[in-house]
Amino acid sequence: IRPAHLAEEVTWNHRPLDVERMAEAARCLLGTHDFSAFRASQCQAKSPVKEMYHLRVTRHGQMIVLDIRASAFLHHMVRNIAGVLMSIGSGERPVAWAREVLESRDRREAGVTAHPYGLYLVQVEYPEPFVLPQRYIGPHFLSGFDTLAD
C-alpha cells in the first residue's frame, strides 16, 4: 500500500521486492566502470567512467535502502540504478541483467528511471588535504523503522 504520510518522501513500488536478489545484482556495479547505461541524455559530465566503492541494499521494516557511494555521479545515475534493481527485485528481470545493462553502455537497455522521491544526498567527502571537518550526518530517518515493523 502506498504510504500516505510519506507521499513524496520515499519511492514506492507496488511489487514485492527481493532484497537478496537486488543486493546480488548490485555487486557487479562495484568498481570503476563506464556507467553510460545509467546516464541521462541531459548529462553534462565529461566522462561516464566513475568508481563506485560502496553499494549496499538493506531492508528496514517495510523500507528498502540503497546506500551508494562513488567518486562522482552522473545525471540520473542513482535513479537508473534503483530502477534496474527494482526490476530485478520484483523478479521481472534476472540478476545477471544488471551486468548486461552496465556492459551495454546503452541507456535504452536500462529500463525505467525510478522516481526522485526518497533520493537523499547524505554526505560529500573531500580529500584529506582540504582538512575539512568530518561528521556522520545520516541517514537518521531510518532510526525508528526497525521498531515500527515489529
Brief overview, please?
By secondary structure, the protein is an alpha+beta fold.
Structure write-up:
By secondary structure, the chain is an alpha+beta fold. Helices cover 23% and strands 16% of the residues. The protein contains 4 helices and 3 strands. The chain has a 3-stranded antiparallel β-sheet. The longest helix has 13 residues, at 77-89. It starts with 18 loop residues before the first helix and ends with a helix.
Structure characteristics:
150 residues, globular, alpha+beta, 4 helices, three-stranded antiparallel sheet
Write the layout of secondary structure elements.
Elements: H1 19-26, E1 31-34, E2 49-60, E3 63-70, H2 77-89, H3 97-104, H4 145-149
Antiparallel strand pairs: 1-2, 2-3
Helix pairs in contact: 1-2
What is the ordering of alpha helices and beta strands?
HEEEHHH
Oligomer: single chain
Counting H and I runs of at least 4 residues, what is the number of helices?
4
Q: Give the proportion of residues in helices.
A: 10-25%
Stretches where pLDDT is under 50 for at least 5 consecutive residues are 145-150
* Terminal-residue CA separation: 18 Å
Shape descriptor reads globular
Number of strands: 3
- Write down the overall mean pLDDT: 87
Radius of gyration: 16 Å
Largest sheet: 3 strands, antiparallel
β-strand percent reads 15-25%
Q: Helix/strand/pairing class, anyone?
A: alpha+beta
Going across the biggest sheet, name each strand in turn.
1-2-3
